Amino acid sequence: MTLLGYTARRIVLTIPVFVGVVTIIFLVVRVLPGDPAQVALGDYASQAAVENLRARLGLDAPLPVQYLTFLAGLARGDLGHSLINGASVRDQIAYNLPFTVELSIAALALGVASGIPLGILAATRRNGSPDVVVRVLSLAVLSLPAFYVGILLVVVFGVWLRWLPAIGGGNLGSPADQLLYLALPALTLGLLMMASVLRVTRSAVLNTLDADYVRTGRAKGIRERGVIFVHALRPALLPIVSLTGVWAVALVGDSVTTEVVFARPGLGKLLVGAMLQRDYTSVQSVMVVYTAFVVAINLLTDVVYGVVDPRIRSGYA
Amino acid sequence: VEAHAREAQDGAMSTTYIRLLAALLLVTLTACAPLATSSVTPVTEQSRTGGILRVGQNASDLGTLDPHFASGTQDRALVDMVYNGLLRFKPGDTTSFEPDLAAALPVATTDAAGHQVWTFNLRHGVMCQPSEGVQSYELTSDDVVYSLQKAASKDTSAYASDYAGMTFGAPQPYTVTVTLDQPLSQALFFPRVANYSGGYIICKRAAEALGPDGLKTHPVGTGPFTFQSYSPKDKVDLVANSAYFRGQPQLDGVEYRYIADLNTRELGLRTGQLDVIAGQADDHWVGQIHSDPNLDVDVFGVGEVSTVFFNTSKPPFDKIQVRQAVVNALSRDEFQALFGSLVAQKVYSPVPEPFMAGGLTEADLAARKIDTSFDTNKARALLKDAGLENGFAFSVVTSEMPAYRVLYESMQAQLARVGIKMDVKVVDHAAMHDQIRKDVNPVVIYNAFRPSADAYLTQFFHSDAIVVSGKAPNTNFAHYDKVDEEIDGARHESDANRQEALWKQAQTKALQDVVAYPILYQDQVYARSRIVDYGHDLMSMIQLYPGIDERTRFRQ
């Protein structure tokens, strides 16, 4: 099967996944206890005022009607308005999305750029001191939850050294400011990504280093650097790509806690805030965007699989 | 030899990688350091005029900035900076009023039909802030009447019931009249036209241009600060209103950030990225902040009163002996110790005596033979009288918020001593409010501040407010219906002394019937950089924040 056909088939398969997840999101959001109208008006408001608001928000409509309205809006690209303050959800996402995207990309880049070389280093120096140090450190990082790593970094670089800002997302109009505010959150998630990539790279490279073709390469006098980067690393890329895909999805999830810890704008902070406010419209719309994110990352990973290992495409023929 | 050569090559390679990565990290962080110095280092002990005050509020986002719907502290604070009332609570002291948009405090008169009339003469030259499509213009009585009518309509206000039976008139451009079907005392009327809830005055043209949804995220008033921008789930920016009628504010503006996590707010304050933060009502936390020489903490009223309500319609709490036994099994000292005596004070009536007329003191309770003493032997004896010598069990739901959860957990431990088993199920805050309004809990602990004794008593003890089954269900969790006459009588009593006596009488009855057990009130706690000067003393703020106005500044 051609790469184009393979990609098209993968895209078609994502549609039922997306619709299914969106439906589950819609139902789960409504199962949550708590009344958005009561949250919006506060505990001072009378029952009559709360019921009045519920009617105005359409929350008293039957569930199927609410569902169809939601799907119809989604089909038109209309994500609705916040039940709490009436703000356009699309505007809210438009403001917050760039912060999450830049955080995810920065963390991914940092994790891959440092994890692969360190993994190769550990593999080529198996059981040597660099290997031990790298393995212990990666294990330590993986043992800590993202929010804890974040707090440690804030304490060191924000409170003690005062080198980097501890909270916020920076001024959108200033790239330097943005970079400054991105440093600690990206380092938090990047470290976690690095530790995982490092361990998989080490394991995959170790496997290929013992292969016959690598020994043959060495016997033919190929320089060690060539043996590692051309003969050993390339076959090891498949598990690395696979893990990167999985971790890219996990990063989107970890970005939720990281954004809350750093009080950084982003989809995660948007989602948590909307859930606390019982803002159904915002919650389900942000979850839809998250779903789209995850589906897109998985799709991209599948396509990269097809590029790295053409045998996978043949399975679809 | 080949192996050694490979090893040497590997070693060189590993050294190169380590150096490269270390250099990259160092370069990144070092490059950030000078930038950080300029933009992050905040407020130091240097001379400063103007400046942006950066506030970290305990919330994930704004609810609504329409003042006639705003109810959360995060919204009330912003609304207070943008809007004015006809009158205002004296900044930092809610026990007295002063003119705001009105030129003087009004005096009640009676018209030809015998109705009570309050007449306000407006200040001249008060300018409505400019907004999208609407130029700044002078506020007149048309705006005030429009705003009060909006506050009085249930479609456009959550506080409409406060204005029932009021008619608003604008006989002159600078004169506003409020005519009441039933007279109100000054103590009850002034809060309705002051800078709180429905009393905030919105500008008619801006409101009409923005529409009801627009006002939720784009407030336009006459106050010291003008709305500049709203970044969803992140912050609201305000700028100084140079045309403010009390003069140009000292600050250039306010950056009001939504940070729900206390640790993050505290880190922001300690790193100097924030100047003021909402803190935690906990002595230990207050002590921690005090230990930083650059920071200070303000602990001030008004306090939110925590009261236990017994559902008298549910066995075994339908028996007065059981309710009395529970009261005698509880210790106010133990509850107070949860927060500390710096931030929590014991209270003896549902209406908090330090903040408003109508409250009862410990001595008042003794004089009225109301027994709220901590005496477990008496509690056991009462349970025996009620046929429950082996105790009993019941279940409640509570919010995950510490202000609620720890009270329930403490109550659980205290009741266990007399054989009462209370199962506590923790749910999120919104779910708790939802559940208790559905009458799920046989015992409810509720934290609330209300602006007057009338509001407290009407919402918690009037039969109309009984949850689920009342005419206008609200927060009468006790299902109590024995003090309607006193509450209604006090509401329309114009003599302040008689009115206060009726409020006290209502509470005396309720406490003698043991339908409620007032525990304590928790003060507001805000931490700030020492160079922040609010511009007024802080005793009590009805908006539950420190009060940021035209006099707030950074000290030189």
Folded structure, characterized:
The complex is a heterodimer of chains A (317) and B (556). Chain A is an all-alpha fold and 317 residues long. Helix content of chain A is 79%, strand content 0%. Helix content of chain B is 33%, strand content 23%. Residues 1-48 of chain B have low confidence and may be disordered. Classes of the chains: A mainly alpha (317), B alpha+beta (556). At the A-B interface, helix 2, helix 3, helix 5, helix 7 and helix 8 of A face helix 1, helix 5, helix 6 and helix 13 of B.
Please provide a brief summary of the model.
Chain A is mainly α. Chain A is 79% helix and 0% strand.
Number of H/I helices of chain A: 13
Shape, principal axes of CA atoms of chain A:
globular
Measured between the Cα atoms of the first and last residue of chain A, the distance is: 5 Å
Order of helices and strands of chain A: HHHHHHHHHHHHH
Query: What is the overall pLDDT average of chain A?
Result: 84
Number of helices of chain B: 16
Task: Classify the beta-strand content of chain A into a percent band.
Answer: under 5%
Salient structural properties:
A: 317 residues; mainly alpha; 13 helices; globular; B: 556 residues; alpha+beta; 9-stranded mixed beta sheet; 4-stranded antiparallel beta sheet; 33% helix; 23% strand; disordered N terminus
Blueprint (SSEs and pairs):
The complex is a heterodimer of chains A (317) and B (556).
Chain A: H1 3-31, H2 36-41, H3 47-57, H4 63-75, H5 89-124, H6 129-143, H7 146-160, H8 175-209, H9 212-219, H10 224-261, H11 267-276, H12 280-308, H13 310-314
Helix pairs in contact in A: 1-12, 5-6, 5-8, 5-10, 6-8, 7-8, 7-10, 8-10, 9-10, 10-11, 10-12, 11-12
Chain B: H1 2-39, E1 52-57, H2 73-82, E2 84-85, E3 87-90, E4 93-99, E5 108-110, E6 116-121, E7 127-128, E8 137-138, H3 141-152, E9 166-172, E10 175-180, H4 186-189, E11 200-201, H5 204-217, E12 225-231, E13 235-240, E14 253-258, H6 262-270, E15 276-278, H7 283-290, E16 295-310, H8 320-329, H9 332-339, E17 344-346, H10 362-367, H11 376-385, E18 392-399, H12 402-416, E19 420-427, H13 429-436, E20 443-448, H14 453-461, H15 484-491, H16 496-512, E21 516-529, E22 532-533, E23 553-554
Parallel strand pairs in B: 1-14, 1-15, 18-19
Antiparallel strand pairs in B: 2-11, 3-4, 5-6, 6-10, 7-8, 9-10, 12-13, 13-14, 15-21, 16-20, 16-21, 17-21, 22-23
Helix pairs in contact in B: 8-11, 14-15, 14-16, 15-16
